[in-house]
């Protein structure tokens, strides 16, 4: 995520108490309120881009104005410390009522019983507005422990002037590039001081695994909590192509030392004709790119399909909250098309509901490839590794160094397979 850090909001201690976080994860019974009873709910959020912070504040303010007996107060959370803060809050029975997180982070909290089962508290029309594949990413043991909001995909950003000069046509949603086509066009665009393609792969695991779903690479199978790992040609397709591109210099050599957004300055300067990044960087490009810089987001690259990991941002309710029904009502309000569209546009991410996506499409028009990007919501699929207890540790301590060595040419495909497999087993 990128953008200017918003001014710090007032930090309030969680105002909830309750039965604690048992192992069952059942929803507490909805509380029955007297007509004049006042309810205070805390809402922890890591929204930090200026437009998203404002959208969040506007949603809370309009809710509070319309619901004088159910008041919501924002807790501002550093996006880099969401998980650790929640661990502390749950342990101290001071968790916020409403929790902004992401699907990949809630697996442990869900299985430990810290998050309420929202299955019976989500309005039927909201359930219908979100694709089932996205609901699957927030469902544990048959229980929905979060409402998905906005999602990221990895997409190619292209300098359209450089593509036009090289005679490379911009692909359409109906005829997206395959990975091989992207490679071929990157070769055409590599000339003079320009590399055809760059991808900030200093931390490569998330991007490689998400895009590997486009080749049906699922990595893990079996039990949701303790699955087994499987590395086949499907899981090796993306890293093998990236290594080939590094070797033939159609991909910038410095890609492996850069973070996800470090490529943008070179993109603006014509050093890279195309860059792969999370679609959220569109906000930064809009704010930073020099006048006259022409760019677009391309449709998702295609392997055997265009699938990518469904790891949406989420809103959950703490199981220890006294007021789960009222917290769920606020979440449903947050998910209204106007509200969710404002959040999505602020972060340049994809709203997971069709009404919100339709509204964003109306607001942004055809600019910068947004129609194809909004359509990518249909390509999001549940990533089985996100529900594995060992995934965070494996990603950090085994997968990332293994991919780094592979892309640097220090190990081959067999070596990569061994390191990924051995790391998972350990």
Automatic annotation (TrEMBL):
Gene3D superfamilies: Periplasmic binding protein-like II. CDD domains: PBP2_TMBP_like. InterPro entries: Bact_solute-bd_prot1 (IPR050490), SBP (IPR006059). Pfam families: SBP_bac_1. This is Sugar ABC transporter substrate-binding protein. It comes from Nakamurella aerolata.
């Amino acid at each position: 995520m990128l953008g200017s850090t918003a001014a710090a909001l007032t930090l309030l201690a969680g105002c909830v108490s309750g039965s604690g976080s048992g192992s069952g994860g059942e929803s507490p019974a909805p509380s029955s309120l007297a007509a004049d009873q006042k309810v205070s709910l805390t809402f922890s959020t890591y929204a930090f881009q200026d437009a998203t912070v404002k959208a969040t504040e506007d949603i809370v303010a309009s809710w509070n104005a319309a619901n004088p007996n159910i008041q919501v107060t924002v807790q501002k959370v550093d996006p880099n410390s969401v998980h650790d803060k929640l661990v502390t809050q749950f342990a101290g029975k001071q968790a916020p009522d409403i929790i902004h997180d992401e699907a990949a982070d809630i697996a442990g909290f869900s299985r430990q019983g810290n998050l309420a089962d929202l299955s019976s508290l989500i309005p039927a029309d909201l359930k219908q507005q979100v694709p089932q594949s996205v609901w699957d990413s927030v469902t544990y043991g048959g229980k929905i422990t979060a409402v998905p909001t906005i999602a990221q995909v990895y997409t190619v950003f292209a300098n359209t002037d450089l593509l036009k000069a090289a005679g490379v046509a911009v692909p359409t949603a109906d005829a997206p590039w395959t990975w091989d086509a992207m490679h071929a066009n990157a070769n055409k665009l590599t000339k003079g001081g320009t590399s055809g393609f760059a991808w900030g792969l200093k931390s490569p695991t998330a991007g490689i695994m998400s895009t590997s779903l486009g080749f049906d690479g699922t990595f893990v199978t079996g039990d949701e909590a303790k699955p087994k790992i499987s590395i086949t040609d499907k899981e090796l397709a993306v890293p093998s192509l990236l290594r080939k591109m590094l070797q033939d210099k159609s991909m910038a050599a410095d890609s492996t030392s850069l973070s996800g957004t470090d490529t943008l300055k070179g993109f603006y300067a014509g050093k890279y004709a195309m860059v792969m990044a999370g679609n959220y960087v569109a906000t930064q490009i809009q704010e930073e790119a020099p006048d006259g810089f022409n760019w677009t987001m391309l449709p998702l690259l295609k392997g055997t399909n265009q699938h990518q990991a469904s790891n949406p941002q989420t809103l959950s309710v703490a199981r220890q909250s006294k007021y789960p029904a009222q917290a769920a009502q606020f979440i449903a309000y947050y998910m209204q098309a106007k509200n969710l569209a404002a959040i999505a546009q602020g972060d340049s991410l994809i709203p997971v509901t069709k009404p919100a996506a339709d509204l964003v499409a109306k607001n942004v028009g055809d600019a910068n490839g947004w129609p194809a990007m909004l359509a990518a919501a249909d390509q999001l699929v549940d990533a089985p590794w996100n529900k594995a207890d060992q995934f965070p540790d494996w990603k950090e301590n085994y997968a990332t160094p293994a991919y780094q060595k592979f892309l640097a040419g220090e190990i081959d495909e067999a070596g990569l397979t061994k390191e990924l497999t051995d790391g998972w087993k350990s």
